[in-house]
Amino acid sequence: MQYSYKYIILGGGMAGANAAMEIRKYDRKGTLLIVTQETDKPYYRPPLSKEFWTEPDYPKETIYYNISDDESIDILTGTTVKQINADQQTIEIESGEIYQYEKLLYSLGGAPKWIDGLESERVLALRNLEDYRNLRKLAKPGSKVIIVGGGWVGAELAAGLKLNDMDVTLVFPNEVLNEKRLPRMLAKEFQQRFVDIGVSLINNTYANSYSVADDQVSLKLENGAVLKADVLVLGIGLKPNVELAEAAGLEVGNGVIADKYLQTSNKHIYAAGDVLNYPDVIIGRNRFEHEEQAEYSGKVAGRNMTGAEEVYNHGAPLSYTNILDISIEGVGEMSRNRDDAIIEEVAGGYIVYYLFKGKPSGILTYNVKVDMDKAREILVNPPKTLDKLTRMLKPI
Ligand SMILES: Cc1cc2nc3c(=O)[nH]c(=O)nc-3n(C[C@H](O)[C@H](O)[C@H](O)COP(=O)(O)OP(=O)(O)OC[C@H]3O[C@@H](n4cnc5c(N)ncnc54)[C@H](O)[C@@H]3O)c2cc1C
Question: Among 89, 192, 287, 392, who pairs with 277 as Cys (CB 3.0-4.6 Å)?
């Protein structure tokens, strides 16, 4: 059976959902289909590692995007796309059915990186609602949970599970938690909050492999230690899902390569979200895994699919986290030369200016709120001398 749509969106994640809503704003009639592997309709992911654990009364149903009831958008859930035939402008799903498109959005996100070990329900990565549900089933007050990876999601979850009375161990490769992103002094302060609430920290080592027997996971660390737990959560990064694009002959690298209009090397196919590699107007060609990037790039790709020729100019997308009583926001490149970063104490919090070749490359706020659009302006038009950098951003 062959179907035909004006617009097809591959992936019902945050980028795909935003693109679909935007297409509908600009083209009320063009037929539109979202194809997604998940059994859930598109939803907003960040609460899965935050409010879902920290706010018992959080209205979980509010995470769904308001497109599910819109009958002018068809959504195929629980459906894996197998192949794109770019010459024929078709996609094939796992059942063998073929769908024709005029414009296609490639927004397949990424797949969690893994370590050696056989598949088990006790070992998961928190990427989607299904993972959340599985984790909830397994991790109860008193459960022993190991989280590998000290990135934002791993740290958020470690705090969330601890607040749910679990015995939590966080394994990470650095000396101090999150020192890859935070200057050492702030990383130490950040880490101390986890110590204070009783999360066990194992630093300076990688996780090598795991095995599962008798409802127990054994995790082998590079330093030779073996840890045991009821559940293992891997938060060790994401690989962009480029395989279908590559097989279809699109240019890929670290992500699917697109131009400033978010058009891939095939003029009928656009890319957005975590999988997108594009020329950022502030920090140059890059790929990001942030909410803001998924939303903005999804919207611009959606508009361009309807015929707009809009340059994607939302440079240096925001990344953020809220963990315990700490809130962090950042734009730009936040790891280069971090030890030379300029740290400004403001209103009980900190603003960090990361430097690269003597210029600010990224700006991060720690427990202080500033206008991040102004922070972006500083990255674009930095002051002539670094001593003028501080006091440019005012707390709001
Ligand atoms: C738990 C969690 C917390 C987060 N918190 C924050 C935060 O606080 N701040 C922040 O900036 N960012 C956060 N993020 C990151 C943010 O959610 C992502 O950047 C965003 O979801 C990316 O959107 P996307 O549409 O590109 O990819 P995704 O939202 O991952 O969507 C991709 C979709 O494609 C589907 N798919 C993949 N392959 C196929 C296939 N072959 N066929 C059909 N469908 C397929 C997937 O199932 C998925 O539904 C968080 C992410 C997670 C998981």
Answer: 287
Give the pLDDT score at 353: 94
H/E stretch holding 191? helix 184-197
Q: Ligand 1, atom 6: nearest CA belongs to which residue?
A: 46
Ligand 1 test: best mutation among 289, 322, 323, 364, most atoms within 8 Å of CB?
289
Q: Once rounded to an integer, what is the mean pLDDT over residues 274-299? A: 96
**How far is residue 366's CA from residue 346's CA, in Å, rounded to a whole number?**
9
Of all protein residues, whose CA lies closest to atom 29 belonging to ligand 1?
13
The answer to whether the beta carbons of residues 288 and 274 sit under 8 Å apart is yes
51 lines ligand 1 (CB under 6 A): no
Dihedral over alpha carbons 332, 336, 339, 341 (to 10 degrees): -30
How many Å lie between the centroid of ligand 1 and the Cα of residue 151? Answer: 16
* 46 Cβ inside 6 Å of ligand 1: yes
Which tokens belong to 258? Answer: 């697109």
Contact 250, 269 (CB under 8 A): yes
Length of the chain: 396
How many angstroms is it from 77 CA to the middle of ligand 1? 15
In this prediction, residue 2 has a pLDDT band, given cuts at 50, 70 and 90, of confident
pLDDT per residue over 333-365, tens digit each?
Answer: 887 666 679 999 999 999 999 998 888 999 999
3-state DSSP assignment of residue 133: helix
Q: What is the pLDDT of residue 78?
A: 98
Ligand 1, atom nearest to 82 Cα: 41
301 Cα: distance to centroid of ligand 1 (angstroms): 16
CA distance 267 to 89: 11
